[in-house]
């Protein structure tokens, strides 16, 4: 089984990767999401179809939107990596670790769409003032809401239908991450 969005092959060795980042869990007989980029099963296919984009045909505005999307996902991925170190609850820490991997994966998806080869280096942020799991989860929720807002705002500005399809798939993933911050806040 292949993910049409990130192109990864899903098999018995990797189906449960990043499971702490999902509300519903994959089982080997029932794959409900891509364990790498998190998209739902409607984007998984038995044939080898992958959503592809010819980056040379993208206009400047779309490339700019994708460049910013790369940075947004790296920014969130790096936040989760730091948050995983700071979280006091082991469960919350595992969720942040998994979320970090997924967001970094999203940045790679956007790099592929835009034909970008150089991973941008962002300024490191100090998250010391977020000194409780509640504060980290609240910031996580805000970051995810911003990602949803970004994709919603720009999905109709991009010049390529397939870029739009990817944005729509990722909106659903980031919305589930918002839900997840509520779930973990109850622990
Ligand atoms: Zn995927």
TrEMBL record:
Record domain Rubrerythrin diiron-binding: where: 65-179
Pfam family, one: Rubrerythrin
An example molecular function term from Gene Ontology annotations: metal ion binding
Stored InterPro entries: Ferritin-like, Ferritin-like_SF, Rr_diiron-bd_dom
Domain of life according to the entry: Bacteria
Gene3D superfamilies per record: 1.20.1260.10
Protein name per its UniProtKB record: Metal-iron-binding protein
Organism per entry: Clostridium sulfidigenes
